């Protein structure tokens, strides 16, 4: 539900989002670059990554605890946040996003995990 609400709010700034399980009818402007992300204790596997959108994050939980990929930041002065659902050990999903150039925060929204190091800058160039 959080993803749906965020996607609606961001249509005004022409952000294109799809997520596994989300109902999306927005056109895909370009073929996304696929980036593998392995979530593990306690890293996002992103290492201050720079990407050019649109990007499909192919997310795998290679750890033993639940993890997820969330991206937050500001677009036009407004806060936004999108996230995959929680992935159990071994589970995979995808998250396709295209954001204006800028640096955003990627982190794991499972309580306590960000503080243990599951966070990274994520720059769209
Ligand atoms: Cu986590």
From TrEMBL:
Superkingdom of the organism of origin: Bacteria
Signal peptide range: 1-22
GO molecular function, one term: electron transfer activity
Record keywords: Copper, Metal-binding, Signal
Organism of provenance: Deinococcus aquiradiocola
Record lineage: Bacteria, Thermotogati, Deinococcota, Deinococci, Deinococcales
The protein, known as: Blue (type 1) copper domain-containing protein
Domain Blue (type 1) copper as annotated: residue spans: 50-123
